[in-house]
Amino acid sequence: MRSYRICVLPGDGIGPEVTAVAVRVLAEAGAAHGFALEIDEQPFGGAAIDATGDPFPAEVRDACLRSDAVLLGAVGGPRWEQGGPRPEQGIMALRKALDTYANLRPIRRWYAGATSPLRPEVIAGVDLLIVRELTGGLYFGERGRTATGAFDTLSYGEHEIRRILHTGFRLARERRGRLTSVDKANVLESSRLWRELAEEIALEFPDVQLEHQLVDSMTMRLAEHPAGFDVIVTENLFGDILSDLAASLAGGIGLAPSASLADGGPGVFEPIHGTAPDIAGSGRANPAGACLSAAMLLRELGEDAAAADVEQAVIAALDSGPVTPDLGGDASTGELADAIAARLGETVSGGRA
Questions:
Q1: What is the gyration radius of the CA atoms in the chain, in angstroms?
Q2: How remote is the C-alpha of 263 from its chain's centroid?
Q3: Is 244 a catalytic residue?
Q4: Rounded to whole angstroms, how far apart are CA atoms 66 and 60?
Q5: Confidence check: pLDDT of 347 > 80
């Protein structure tokens, strides 16, 4: 029997609640498709600070590196904001330790009843993929305070830009052959380098149509015509902002999954929502994004059939209800989890028939 080691980092707030549902779904998919999972749960973020004083202890890092994939909840919250280490420092350290430089965020209208602030005819047909550079830029540059201010440094090496652009081009080739590169080349020197390298690498992909967009005009275009985009590749900060905007337009951040991948070693799979401390423990968290992230995890492991079954189960459960309060319903986390599990059983049984 095929076996995979999954390092589970439940995190903080609603992280443990939604991650538990994703682990349940992974286990049921494994049982149906003939593979086993070894779950190695570790404290991370604020939970690790409480336990050890470190948001990403060395033993947790080693557990991640030993795994085939990492399933992450969310980290952070107001209780860790007053001095001392912050949970988000664990996220930065995790990305660096695993070198997960390519963050993939698929954006689509996951179910028919998904609401959007956009008119139905505008949101119809949205199916795009944001490819965000994840280990460079402002988030990892030199920073500090002076007597009269503060600074953060935006810095990229050519190799960092080249590898994320190559990822974007390869994925566009596998999809609909259109790549939008987002920068701020009219102001930033790093963006001018980014644009030059995009033009150079485009010569290797004559079957992919490349266009450039400035990040400010890109936000307008995403709101006006989101269905007009295929693959969007951009740097760390811009990708962080644009992906949350796009997820909101397509039905809500609670539905949005992500995968952070390296050129070798385990990837990190997590919903893009935060810890939502205001609803933590209330049973109202939406586990759909975590389950869809689990599907991305399965696909990266080569378990494509299981991944498709999980996606279909989530979509079917959302289409028929119940849905959680963030989607306009009144279902609990457990009720939606049970609905997804039931649909997964039906999907698998139907596929075997």
A1: 20
A2: 17
A3: yes
A4: 10
A5: no
